[in-house]
Amino acid sequence: MKLWQKENTVTSEKIERFTVGRDREMDLFLAEFDVLGNLAHATMLETIGLLTADDLSALKVELFSIYKEIQLGNFIIEEGVEDVHSQVELMLTRKLGDVGKKIHSGRSRNDQVLVDMKLYTRDRLFQVVRAAEKLFDVLISQSEKHKNDLLPGYTHLQIAMPSSFGLWFGAYAEALIDDVIQLNAAYRLANRNPLGSGAGYGSSFPLNRTLTTELLGFEGMHHNVVYAQMSRGRTEQAALTAIASLAATVSRLAMDVCLYNSQNFSFIVLPDDLTTGSSIMPHKKNPDVAELLRAKTNRMKALPMEVTMVLSNLPSGYHRDMQLLKEILMPAFDEILDCLDVATFMLENIRVKENLLADTKYDLLFSVERVNELVINGVPFRDAYRQVGAEIGDGSYTAPRDLKHTHEGSIGNLQNDLIKARMDQELARFGFEKVEKALSDLIVS
Questions:
Q1: Measured between alpha carbons, how far is 132 from 249 in angstroms, rounded to an integer?
Q2: pTM of the predicted model, to two decimals?
Q3: Which residues of the chain have pLDDT under 50?
Q4: Region 13-102: CATH code
């Protein structure tokens, strides 16, 4: 029987298939977190007298056993079992009889899935942050390595002023800091405890929600039980908004790689083992990796809007519409993690071409240097600007290639050390260590 099923009631097979949807598939990702939530809830129930010490001890043994099976990849949701919560409770009841049935006291499937989703989202955001940090480190490393390799800078896709690969790599490194700030905002929404909110209206049992908050390493709880339910969807949307921001950074980087790798630009080279060929043109070395990164990350930009549409016009309280959020959120984490991993690998192996600006076709890049040269010698800027324009027009212009960029954040002063320090500061705000310790204590207690 389902957790919600009454005696002598049967749901149509067609309706069951439609309402369960992909839940059994998606819920496999929640299994370890459901066990963690059960451990915290059972521990709390014992402190308020709804479980005996022996009950708790027996439940812990079985929950630890289930957790190990999940870690080994052996956990399944059996045919006919509706979701992960039902499967775990079924396994406990098979082993422990009535003790297994007691664990649902003071709890609803609503707050059970909420706490699972909070724990899952928090964990996956942690993984995304670590993957973003790895990409950041590669970008900073490449920026330092190639800080003296000049690159044409563009506005409107017209050559504008001298840039450098140091600036290019470093720009995307700093962009990741802003993405990490958004990931932190999403992480904080995920890092609040909804357990004990029941179906959205609490319980008459004297639940100790502070205790479960501490046991699960949450920053705090959702105090209002109605809002705890309303946080479903908002948490997913925040996570997907952060993922979309990160995806936009990777997408733009991928587009640059596609552009700079083309023969018309020819600024970088992707090694042979990072490219694919053509079935008809033997000379082709296609940057498929960057193109697919661009497409995959562009698609992710739309995900927050999908959540927005699912949540549109919903009143307060729980609604089954929210079940669909799993199907939007969970694949997104896998996709962004894969993209970050591939982007990092690509940038580790990318080759930069040297002495690009020695080509006379880039002479006009240095026109501002010529203007500044005149200004330093006392010519008013507007007069210097017109003079250089005239030189370009009559062919007397000569490109001054001796660059003197020293201000903060310029070619000669990248300030990568300060960018790195800022990233470290933002990473420290997550407080991952507290979560890791709490969950470690919960599993070994």
A1: 11
A2: 0.92
A3: 1-2, 4
A4: 1.10.275.10
